[in-house]
Amino acid sequence: WARAWPRVQVLRALNAVDADAKAKAMEEARKAREEEERQKREEEERRKRALVCKEMLRGALKANTIETLENAIKHTERETFQTTLMEHDDELKTLYAEAREALEKLRKEEEERRLAEERRLEEERRIAEEKRQAALARVGEIEIILKRGISDRNIDLLKSGIKQAEDNFLQKDLFPDYDNAKVLLERLEKIEKVKKNIMELKRPLIAELKSMANPPVPVIKAMTGAFLLMGEKASYLKEWNNIVILLNKTGQLSVKRRVQEL
């Protein structure tokens, strides 16, 4: 036994070493499995994020608008910032580059359109100013036409003077004659419309109007407006009976005669 005891100790020591080595190997294997699972999770997460980015980039390229491209590019840049996501996905890298190129092209086209519109507006202003300057020599002539149209209450002259003033951008230069002519023309055209309507009234219709005790509101308004243009006071025209009295008048005070003199 004395001779065997050292051998037993050696065997025990060897068994202890084997146990430690085995435990260490198992721990390393566990860590390796955890690392592998972690890498798989990261790879799956990377794949999902890349898929979302690619879908957004494809949609933006299809829509081909500045807003959609900017949104897709910004989202991709946020997802790939300080990561190797772009390095692991060639398709994502290609789509991102295409989106950047398309966005740059659209921005350039938009800038060209903006500059072209500015040039167009500037050219229009230049032409208008040149036309106005050239027409300033005609201010006196157009002013005479407007003043004559106002004094004569002539619709044709008023229209002619107003059109010439507007065509030559001289509205401000012809103040206040231009404004007065516009107001008078509007009033005269209303009078002409009323005159036309009244002159077309047949005797049976006038007789019918006279016989109405309680006419419809539109009829009252139409006749009130007509007599207001003839110079009657609004307070007098509030009563329908007074309008009937005016309709019954004959000779120079008849409705049609008064309309002709407007």
Description:
- The protein has helices spanning 5-63, 66-80, 90-135, 139-152, 155-167, 177-199, 203-211, 217-229, 240-248, 255-260.
- 79% of the residues lie in helices and 0% in strands.
- With 262 residues, it is mainly alpha-helical.
- The mean pLDDT is 85.
- The chain is built from 10 helices and no strands.
Unreliable segments (pLDDT under 50, ≥5 consecutive)? Answer: none
Q: Which descriptor suits the 3D outline?
A: elongated
Portion of residues within helices: over 70%
Distance between the termini: 152 Å
* Main sheet specs: none
Strand content: under 5%
Structural class determined from secondary elements = mainly alpha
Order of helices and strands: HHHHHHHHHH
Short description:
This protein is mainly α and 262 residues long.
